[in-house]
Specification:
The protein has 652 residues and is an alpha+beta fold. The protein has 23 helices and 23 strands. Its main location: membrane.
Length: 652
Amino acid sequence: MAKGSQGRKDLSKVKIGLVMVLFAVALVGLWARTGWVQLHDGSALLSKASKQSHAAEYEFGERGRIFDRNGAMLATSVEAKSVYARPFQIENIDVAADTLSRDLKISRRTVYRKLKSKKKFVWIKRQVTDRETAAIERADLKGISLLSEYSRIYPNGHLSGQLLGFVNIDGQGLEGIERIYNERMKPGKAEYVVQRDAKGGRMYLDAQGREMDINGLDIRLTIDTHIQHAAEQALATSIEKYQARAGIVMVVDVDSGDILAMANYPFFNPNAVSKSTASQRRLRAITDVYEPGSTMKPFLFAAALEEGVIEPDTLINCENGRWRVGGKTIRDTHPEKWLPAHKVMRYSSNIGTAKIGLDLGAGVYHSYLSRLGFGEKTNIGLQGETRGIMMPPDKWTSVDLAAISFGQGIGTTAIQMAKGFLTLANGGVTKDLRLIKSPEKARKNNAEQIFSQQTADTVLSMMKDVVHEDGTGRRARIAGITMAGKTGTAQKAAKGGYGDQYLSSFVALVPALDPELLVITMVDEPQKSNYGSMVAAPVCREVTVRTLAYHGKLSETLDTAVAENISVESLVEHPLEQSMDAPRQQPMTDRVPDFRQLPVRRALELLVKKGIVPVIKGQGMTVKRQEPAAGQPWPDDANKEGTDDVFVLWLS
């Protein structure tokens, strides 16, 4: 018995030893596996875990805005949702493709191809509607997400459309100011890391990138929205009345050289680029080259006076309206015999002007025109500007010189004409035109005295006679206001010579002898009448009246007809309200008014006057909701970052 017991005891020790060995082997194995996982597979496993619990998301900044000289909004961005996919996260491609195709109204084949992509990020549809956004949120598809970005809107529709230009769906400027200042206005992009729980819910969004300034910078133009609208409205009325092809109006502040208006017809609405044509998008004031006709005559007279070729009272034989030079016949609309030089200007005699040009000489006149900027770009900074057409003087025949003297045989742009007349208005000293108020560009000190002050004053006095009772520009007269002006009726070139179409134009400088305002009108191919005095002069008159009224400078002696047609008080107090079709007036009291159902353009105008630039959400052109609500007190710090006092407009 003792021996058996001892044998069993020894076997227990063996079992215990075996168990300990097994535990030791298991522990060593675990240690080895742990070491292998930690040292060999650690990086790969950490990457997989990070992909499951963390994801990168993006936030796009807002493109810089465009304002007029007074802070009125010309272009802004509104928040919009876009749908994107991370293909590697999608569980069932067929279900996702069916759902997205149905909710976003795009072909299943297109969606399916995108979802099969090997890329980490693919766009499904950009800038979707509110209804589509709600549908995607309800579907809650894994791997399909919504991203906030911005779409561009132009609150004033076609106002300054060609000048502003437009952007593509990625927010890249393609034409106009949008393209020229794209680098300044384009927004940045910030990437954020999002941690999710086991169900995919967001746990937190870290602060990575939050310190980045991803919004683009703003631009402020010299354009005045009120004057621009007056110019566009007057131009459209004339073109409709005379069934013209196109037109241009420019308004310039003489003292600063600021362009206050640059109207181009046909109009272009950058909110509807796909419905426009290249012809509508063209900024005709800088791209279209015209033979200006008689509006060029003041430059010839200035050169001739400066060179001592004529005096204001120099008598010139106007040949009773018919004269041959170099085998060509020049005719005057109003035949005269002997006229003093100042009446040659008043009655716009081509024959008298041609004789002055021939006495002046091709080389001398070409030199003056070159120094005025003709034949060269104005360097206003707009893409697409043309140089115009001006032959070298050694190629001018006597016929060429005679024709160029009264504005035929030379090609100019509206902006070149504006720069030339700005020199006359500025006492004979050149001055650069300016379109961008901010960021302010350093101006080169390249002013040149081309004409003496006396010569400039004499030419302006002659142009004042043009608007006299018997002058060609009498339809531009404004009672109580002195105006220097010049009409132009230029026959347009056609194949083999000149055709039966005309460019009608008028230039106005107000006041006549110390100009503060320059207005240029060009109407292309009017049908019912082709005279600048009939077609273009009334446009200049209307634009001038409305601009002076807006600035509070319209004389009290304004004639009754003007007073009846235009309410000076309404123009000064509400210059946009009567013409931009606001559905109702919004008194700006100490309480927030009701902006609902207002066009976003009108709401922005009223808020900017209050010093508030609102946050705009959604898509559309009409306000459907606002915060603060109507009747609430005005927020104190609506423009201060980091405060809760934000003014928000939701669009429909």
